[in-house]
Specification:
4 helices; alpha+beta; Aminopeptidase
């Protein structure tokens, strides 16, 4: 499997993944009625952020986006999101995209990575993030309307990059 930067020709299969994940309503807080244009504006990052795809045998299996969590004084903390095609789940695609995003954030000098809205019912993702050093720093009870489970909590998860020298100062972001 190769992870590479998104190109415009990737949009149709990326949209198919985003559309299916969002319409399922089980993991993302995006509106299930989101259009392709709205999804593009939401998912495709502009610098200093980045959108990538995971490809195997010319088939797009998943996608990730990453960048600063907030602008200005919050710009030294990164964030990322991941989506995998339904028939590619359980094959390590999400883990590979997650590790790529962590490495990317470290290389670009971020102090840590924050996930703002991880559905507590998304147990596989929560477990993956915990295995890689993330902590739940807060949970908003009942903030996510899961289509089967009803209202479940949304975790805010954070991982400080201890391997980043504290004397570096603000993040050095790509041009």
């Amino acid at each position: 499997m190769q992870i590479r930067e998104f190109t415009e020709s990737d949009w149709p299969p990326v949209w198919a993944i985003v559309r299916d994940v969002v319409r399922a309503g089980e993991t993302f807080t995006y509106d299930p009625r989101m259009t392709a244009e709205q999804a593009y504006d939401t998912w495709i990052e502009s610098p200093p952020g980045l959108t990538v795809v995971a490809v195997e045998d010319n088939r797009l299996l998943g996608t990730a986006k990453m960048g600063p969590n907030r602008a200005g004084p919050g710009g030294h903390v990164s964030t990322a999101s991941f989506m995998v095609a339904a028939d590619a789940r359980g094959r390590g695609v999400g883990t590979a995209l997650f590790r790529y995003a962590l490495d990317w954030a470290r290389r670009h000098g971020y102090a840590g990575m924050q996930f703002n809205a991880v559905a507590e019912s998304n147990e596989r993702a929560v477990a993956l993030y915990r295995r890689h050093g993330f902590d739940v720093v807060g949970t908003v009870p009942g903030a996510f309307a899961h289509p089967v489970l009803g209202r479940v909590g949304l975790h805010i998860m954070y991982h400080e990059f201890a391997d980043r020298p504290s004397s570096e100062g603000p993040a050095t972001l790509p041009a």
